[in-house]
Amino acid sequence: EVQLVESGGGLVQPGGSLRLSCAASGFSFSSYWMHWVRQAPGKGLVWVSHINSDGGTTAYADSVKGRFTISRDNAKNTLYLQMNTLRADDTAVYYCARSGGGLWGQGTLVTVSS
Amino acid sequence: QSVLTQPPSASGTPGQRVTISCSGSSSNIGSYNVYWYQQVPGTAPKLLIYRNNQRPSGVPDRFSGSKSGTSASLGISGLRSEDEADYYCAAWDDSLSVPVIFGGGTKLTVL
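Above: the input entities. Below: the structure tokens describing the complete assembly.
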């Protein structure tokens, strides 16, 4: 089955860290750019970061630049988002998505609160 | 504030046709393809339209997309109760800080 499955979300204190994972299956993961998109409670979709197929090119939204790092392991068919120095406004459901828009994970909730 | 502008809400009665607009600029819609997503609250977005007017397999032909200049629109004909959801447009952008942008979303209510 073609799917993306995120994991790693949870409750973390301000200033803390989390690493999200996105396990891909059913397609040639190494051939696709991948994205992280987040959605704060009751708000719209916001692009966070993307990475090209071999991991050599990355980009970040200004709001997370310097704090978040996107990476991938094509041997493990897995995408990652390392999130450091988390703030309350990072609270959101985080989705991984395959470039082209046709495949999204189910999302994982990150809550930053003391 | 989103770079792509959508009306916050839209509504229609069953069987009607509704259109949702998405207004951008030369650095995004004017230069790149537009994508449309449907999101039922509590679920992941679902791709409805890609490359301005193409429907993925499984998306009913009641859904259509168009683009002209720096604006795009999503049309939904034969409105059904299950179409009640949030709809988002998206496009790449020439901005170095935000290369992928979404509209603010339109909540569609089926009366």
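Note for the figure: The longest strand of chain B covers residues 85-92.
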